[in-house]
Structure formats: C-alpha cells, structure tokens
Amino acid sequence: MKVKSLLVSQPKPDLEKSPYADIIKKYNVKIEFKKFFKIEGVASKDFRQNRINMLDYSAVIFTSKNAVDHYFRLCVELRAQVPDTMKYFCVTEAIALYLQKYIQYRKRKIFHGNNLFTDLMESIKKHKTETFLLPCSETYNQDVLKILDENKINYTKTEVYRTVPDDLSKLKIQNFDMLVFFSPSGIKSLFHNFPKFKQNSTIIATFGETTSQEAKLAGLKVSVEAPNPQAPSMTMAIDQFLQKNNKVK
C-alpha cells in the first residue's frame, strides 16, 4: 500500500530542523502532528495517601522531564525541602541538564546514562546503599522495574503524574494511511476517542516494545517497529518502510 498521509502522535516539531521534513519532501507525503494524551499531576492530597515521605530517600531516579517537574512540584506543595545531599540518576543527559530548572546543577551529585536505562544502571549499582525514589506515571515501563529488581536495588515507585486521553474529536482518523505511536498511552487514547476504530488497511507504526505490545493487545497489526538494528529512530523506520512501499529509488 502506498502511504500518502501520516498522523504522528506527538506535538508538531520545528520542521526546519526535523527529519520529518526530509520524509515529506522525499516521498511527497502529508504529515500531521497531534499529541494523543495530556499530562495531569497527582494532587498533593492524593499523594499523601501513599504515605511516602520524599525526605526518606537519599536518591531519585528520573526517566522523564515530566517526572522531574512533578517531583519538585510535590516537594514544594508538601513543604519537603530537598537536601543538597540528594543524588539524582537520570536516564539521559538531557534530563540531567533539565534539573537546572530546579537545582544548582554544579553543586549536586548527578549521574546520567546514554538514553538506555541499562546504561544508567552502572551508576545505580555503584550506589546500592542509597534508598531510591522512582517518580513516574501510572503507565510505567515494567522493564525498568524488572532491571531494578534483578539488581536488588532498594527503591520505591511512586505515581506523581498521570496520562489522560486528549480530545481528538476534530481528527478524521480514517483519512490517514499511517498512524505513528510512541507510548501505550497513545494507543489507549486512540480507542478512547474512537471506540469503533477498525484498522482495515491503516498502517500502524510504534516506537518501543511496550508501545508495540499495547498495540497488539488492542488487536492492531504493527507493520513498522522502532528502534531496531537498522533503524534506531522512528523517522528512519518510517523512511525505510516508505522506501519499500512508495517505490522511491
């Protein structure tokens, strides 16, 4: 099937700097961007019911900027002054640098991986005596928890924000030849907004194993999966699919 239109379930990027621009030009396709869900912080009164004291932990593991924002928001609302001795473990350097929004970066003990949680684990294992707090959403990557458990890390997972479906009623979902998803929340939002959705000939592309699993559990056939050895990014995977199916040499 020749793909003429794609819907990417992410906010619209700066196309001048985005590889999506190359795909549009190369294959003469139409790409629309729309985030399928929104973030809502857990209210402090609800967080208190977990009986978790932020100051009982000597280290924090961050796997997203949303987790950073809502961790520090709750600390303020709960009047928990984070000590200068707190250690921060971030899955990417970008998340680590994002901490500058809340702390004096150079005066803190901050560790980061290179996009993969297994990279970060090397630093975490060197600090196994710490008590770790893992702030996250309700739909958390179970692979990360498995890795922490296998390495016998003393950690507590706590929900600090939630993903809720956004309103997609203005989208004519049937007009797109390919739908591109980056999280299980995007798949859930699709069926929340379009409970009668039938895939038919629509191509489904997913990024990440958990997203792919969620799509398949929902009865969708996934034709494009990233990352993979040949395509570490979603745009590369899409490019390779279009190269084969849109007959561009």
Tell me what you see in this structure:
The chain has two domains: 5-36 and 167-245, 3-Layer(aba) Sandwich (Rossmann fold); 40-162, Rossmann fold (3-Layer(aba) Sandwich). A five-stranded parallel beta sheet has the order 2-1-10-11-12. Strands 6-5-4-7-8 form a five-stranded parallel beta sheet. Strands 3-9 form a two-stranded antiparallel ribbon. The protein has helices at 19-27, 44-48, 65-77, 93-98, 117-125, 142-150, 184-193, 209-217, 234-245; strands spanning 5-8, 30-33, 37-41, 59-62, 87-90, 109-112, 132-136, 155-159, 161-165, 178-181, 203-207, 222-226. α1 packs parallel to α9 (234-245) and α7 packs parallel to α8 (209-217). The protein is elongated and about 55 Å long. It has 249 residues and is α/β, with parallel strands linked by helices. The mean pLDDT is 93. 33% of the residues lie in helices and 22% in strands. It contains nine helices and twelve strands.
Assigned CATH class of the largest domain: Alpha Beta
Order of helices and strands: EHEEHEHEHEHEHEEEHEHEH
Name of the CATH architecture of the largest domain: 3-Layer(aba) Sandwich
Largest sheet: 5 strands, parallel
Question: What class do helices, strands and sheet pairing give?
Answer: alpha/beta
Give the integer mean of the pLDDT values. Answer: 93
How big a fraction of the residues is strand?
15-25%
Report the uncertain regions.
none
How many DSSP H or I helices?
A: 9
Q: If strands are numbered along the chain, what order do they take across the biggest sheet?
A: 2-1-10-11-12
CATH fold-level name of the largest domain: Rossmann fold
Distance between the termini: 16 Å
How many runs of DSSP E, i.e. beta strands?
Answer: 12
Q: What is the alpha-carbon Rg in Å?
A: 20 Å
Helix content: 25-40%
Oligomeric grouping of the chains = single chain
